[in-house]
Amino acid sequence: MTGFFKSDFSTSIGTLYYLWGVEGTNKEVNVIFLGNDEKSFKQYIDKLDVMFSGTEFYEKKCLELEEKILNYLSGKNSSIDLKPLFLMGSDFEKKIWQEAMNIPYGSTVSYRELAQRAGFLKAWRAAGTALNHNPVMLIVPCHRVIRSNGKIGFFGGGVEVKEFLIRLENN
DNA sequence: TGCATGGCGCCGG
DNA sequence: ACCGGCGCCATGC
After folding, report:
1. Residue A61, exposed/middle/buried by CB under 10 A (0-12, 13-18, 19+)?
2. Which of A11, A24, A48, A113 has its CA 20 to 30 A from that of A168?
3. CA at A132, C1' at C6: how many angstroms apart?
4. Distance in angstroms, CA of A147 to C1' of B5?
5. What is the CA radius of gyration of chain A?
6. Rounded distance, CA A78 to CA A65, Å?
7. What are the per-10-residue average pLDDT scores of chain A (171 residues)?
């Protein structure tokens, strides 16, 4: 694994931090981290324990990401069209994240339903914990997962942000 | 290994 | 409608 680079930018839901990684022989560049919490961003980088190349080479790539996210946050685009690269996480967590990506824009499912769809009939509680470890907010749309009783539930990036995103997608 | 900890769910009062 | 209690399951220490 080589070619990590990172950056941040300002949005309507606060400063977003992101991290790219280049994978495999085809040199595919994908998003490893996207989040609004600087602390977890830094912790993530520490855990990866890698060297970073300069962002200049990837400036175009960064601008593309920022444009896609901003278009999504302004309601202009309903799809973000960025591919995540899960470098960390258990198989269970990856399956939950993967399944969450199948939730259509503008709709919601319960934690229970999500766990079931991913093949874990009774692991709804653990599914919530897995979503809390989602490394790429918005790309894995964990804000579309709410409680069975209709309540909003929690959100790593802040419940207000979760509410904002659900409202955004229903306008 | 056991036990506590989580973005939960369901039932009873 | 709201709460407490108990059940549920993957992780981390």
Report:
1. middle
2. A113
3. 24
4. 19
5. 16
6. 15
7. 83 96 82 96 87 72 96 97 96 98 98 98 98 98 98 97 98 89
pTM of the model: 0.95
Residue with tokens 């989602």: A134
Q: What pLDDT is recorded for position A94? A: 98
> Strand A145-146 to strand A109-110: parallel, antiparallel, or no bridges (unpaired)?
parallel
Q: How far is the CA of A150 from the C1' of B13 (A)?
A: 22
pLDDT at A23: 79
Which of residues 105 to 164 on A have a Cβ less than 7 angstroms from any strand C atom?
A: 120-123, 125-126, 129-130
Q: Which residues contact A58 (CB under 8 A, 6 or more apart)?
A: A5, A20, A29
Q: What confidence score (pLDDT) does residue A86 get?
A: 96
- Catalytic annotation, pick one of A142, A145, A165, A166: A142
